[in-house]
Amino acid sequence: MREGYEGTGPGAITPDGCAVELYTRLSVGEEPDIISAAVPAGARILELGSGVGRVTHPLLERGFTVTAVDESAEMLERVRGARTICGPIEDLDLGETFDVVMLASFLVHAGDVEVRRGLLKTCARHVAEDGCVLIQREGPDYHTNVPRERLDPTGFTIRIVSAEPVGDGVDSIHAEYVFPDATWTQTFLARPLTKEQFEEALGEAGLRVDRYLTEDGMWVRAVKG
Ligand SMILES: C[S@@+](CC[C@H](N)C(=O)[O-])C[C@H]1O[C@@H](n2cnc3c(N)ncnc32)[C@H](O)[C@@H]1O
């Protein structure tokens, strides 16, 4: 387990506290639409932190080719139809480039700045000269509108219970996923990033914002340079 990260509930738990079985139950939202609208048809996508393939599978169905990377073998075992690579994103060096590199699920908010740098450098190392990097950022009130909860239409409750400062601008977030037959929790470290801080972090990795894809600024298309 990564330090500061923890998960509870049935089944395997990843080093960042995610539950494999929970992710097999979560349905996909608007992600495939946002991604498809921002990249060329049939693009070769490198998806970093793919989990069980919640987003991977709809992308494959839309005709993209996906290489899915995750440090959890138990997550990757559930991925169908994509090339899979197991290991930390920070260390990835495939010696090839992709039309699109995806870093979703707020991974760019990693508590450890060195991990964040590593993630963004991996994005930069694997994106083709004329390709793009798609990044999903947290919403602006993620750390302040707490506690909050949402009843998902598929019949479970997601609750962000607390966001406790642990120093150096990092919060420890505690989340619960309550289903009628099971409950999972995840505790993880997340660093809020203003737009300026986010853009500076991109710059350090040799990337820059091409455009914000959604009005809330959560999905970003970045390019080299
Ligand atoms: C919150 S889950 C999201 C999975 C998927 N993107 C989705 O939206 O369903 C995050 C995933 O990223 C993986 N992960 C997190 N940090 C990682 C890292 N530094 N290297 C490799 N995998 C990582 C975890 O193992 C987990 O499967």
What labels describe this entry?
6 helices; 21% helix; globular; 225 residues; 5-stranded antiparallel β-sheet; 7-stranded mixed β-sheet; 36% strand; alpha/beta; Rossmann fold; binds S-adenosylmethionine
Please give a quick description of this structure.
With 225 residues, the protein is an alpha/beta fold. It has helices at residues 20-25, 31-38, 56-61, 73-76, 113-126, 195-204, and strands at residues 6-8, 44-48, 65-70, 83-86, 98-103, 127-136, 148-152, 156-167, 170-178, 183-190, 207-212, 219-224. The protein has a domain at 23-139 and 193-224: Rossmann fold.
Low-confidence stretches: none
Question: What is the number of E strands?
Answer: 12
The largest sheet, given as strand count, sense and whether it forms a barrel, is: 7 strands, mixed
What is the number of helical segments per DSSP (H or I, 4+ residues)?
Answer: 6
Question: Which structural class best describes the helix and strand composition?
Answer: alpha/beta
Q: Helix-strand pattern, N to C?
A: EHHEHEHEEHEEEEEHEE
Strand content: 35-45%
Instruction: Predict the CATH topology of the domain at 23-139 and 193-224.
Output: Rossmann fold
Percent of residues in helices comes to 10-25%
Ligand identities: S-adenosylmethionine
User: CATH superfamily of the domain at 23-139 and 193-224, called what?
Assistant: Vaccinia Virus protein VP39
Shape: globular
* Cα end-to-end separation: 35 Å
